[in-house]
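Long-time lurker, first post. I've been practising inverse folding by hand and with some scripts of my own, and I keep getting stuck on stretches where the structure tokens seem ambiguous. Below is the full token string for one chain I'm working on. Before anyone asks, I'm not after the true native sequence, just a reasonable design that respects the backbone. If someone could post their per-position residues I'd love to compare against what I wrote down in my notebook.
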């Protein structure tokens, strides 16, 4: 919701400090975000990272309730699995047909049996996982502008497109043309930056779908990639990720730490709470600091169950994870065994995130509310991960 992707609200949590300190956004910044260059080459797909057979699912003692929740989410993923290209190189749409056909009628009471019947475990690279957490934040906002509610929440602009300028190569990770716009002369240029958008560059170019009460809150909702606006009358507008301006993401927490604004020797800890408290205590500096992150996320209103992940289906608490689609087929089950028991068991990869890059890197979704905020905020788990692929996949890959 990656692109997550994400956050913005009255109270913040250390949950997203890692995202802010990293060079990209959380749970969710979505497809199309330009990757930041890395100093050393890393494998760009599951195949290049190396694929090996993992142990049997039975050896993990997976809880039946956890398996049942994963089966329900897997069913939602099937329509996408059957038609999407798998960027990891592990599977083909037709590989998922038997499992998806069976999932429609398989009894939830034997959900673990479903996964044992149709899947085999694949270890990607060394299989060593790192898992963080995200949640659906809630901030003050409403549909109409009013005193105290004057921060625009934008939908997708009409002039945001992909193009092929001579001076800008395609995204080396995805091969897609970069996002931008055509200026008055017809030249393809970068899309408006955060500072330009705040100065009114989107007037007449993008719909205002709602109005938030606080720009700092909305900034962190963008980092999270989705969220809720709660009006004074108690009504709620659910925001989902709709797109991004194509500008690079800058983690302001890292910049603030380098400048000595947060961290040791300051009254502001290197945490989400510390970052937000500094911004609120220094309003004259807050805007300039946030403008360092030129990335801007556009939203759409989401109706129905849960926030939508990048797969286009609702992400569910304690079941959905964001993953890097270059290493995990979006929609695939994932088995995690970590040093935090809360994340042990079966999950389903249904989202992406700007900071969720590489093999065995996951961002677990915990829902909405205070408990979700607390769990997500403190989630930092390490252990092992396996990607579940349709039986026969490993044999086919080994014959290449």
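-- Answer (accepted) --
I ran through it position by position. Result:
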């Amino acid at each position: 919701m990656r692109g997550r992707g994400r956050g913005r609200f009255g109270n913040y949590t250390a949950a997203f400090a890692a995202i802010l300190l990293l060079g990209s956004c959380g749970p969710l910044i979505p497809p199309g975000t330009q990757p930041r260059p890395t100093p050393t080459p890393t494998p760009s797909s599951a195949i290049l990272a190396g694929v090996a057979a993992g142990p049997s699912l039975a050896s993990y003692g997976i809880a039946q309730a956890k398996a049942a929740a994963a089966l329900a989410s897997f069913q939602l993923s099937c329509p996408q699995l059957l038609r999407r290209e798998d960027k990891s190189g592990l599977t083909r749409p037709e590989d998922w047909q038997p499992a998806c056909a069976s999932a429609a009628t398989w009894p939830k009471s034997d959900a673990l049996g479903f996964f044992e019947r149709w899947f085999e475990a694949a270890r990607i690279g060394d299989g060593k996982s790192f898992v963080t957490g995200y949640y659906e934040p809630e901030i003050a906002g409403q549909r109409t502008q009013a005193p105290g509610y004057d921060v625009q929440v934008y939908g997708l602009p009409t002039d945001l497109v992909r193009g092929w300028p001579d001076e800008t190569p395609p995204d080396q990770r995805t091969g897609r043309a970069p996002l931008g716009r055509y200026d008055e002369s017809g030249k393809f240029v970068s899309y408006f930056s955060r500072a330009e958008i705040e100065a009114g560059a989107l007037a007449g170019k993008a719909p205002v779908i709602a109005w938030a009460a606080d720009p700092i809150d909305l900034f962190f909702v963008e980092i999270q990639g989705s969220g809720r606006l709660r009006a004074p009358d108690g009504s709620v507008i659910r925001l989902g990720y709709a797109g991004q301006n194509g500008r690079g993401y800058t983690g302001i927490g890292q910049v603030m730490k380098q400048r000595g604004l947060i961290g040791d020797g300051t009254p502001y800890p290197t945490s989400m709470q510390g970052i937000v408290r500094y911004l609120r205590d220094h309003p004259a500096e807050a805007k300039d600091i946030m403008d360092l992150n030129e990335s801007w996320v556009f939203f759409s209103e989401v109706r129905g169950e849960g926030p939508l992940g990048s797969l286009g289906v609702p992400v569910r608490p304690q079941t959905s994870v964001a993953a890097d689609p270059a290493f995990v087929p979006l929609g695939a089950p994932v088995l995690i065994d970590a040093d935090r028991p809360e994340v042990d068991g079966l999950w389903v990869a249904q989202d992406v995130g700007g900071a969720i890059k590489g093999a065995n890197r996951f961002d677990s979704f915990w829902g909405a509310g205070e408990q979700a905020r607390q769990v997500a905020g403190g989630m930092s788990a390490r252990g092992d991960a396996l990607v579940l692929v349709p039986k026969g996949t490993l044999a086919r890959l080994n014959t290449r």
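A couple of notes from the structure itself: The longest helix spans residues 64-81. The chain has a mean pLDDT of 86. Happy to go over any region you disagree with.
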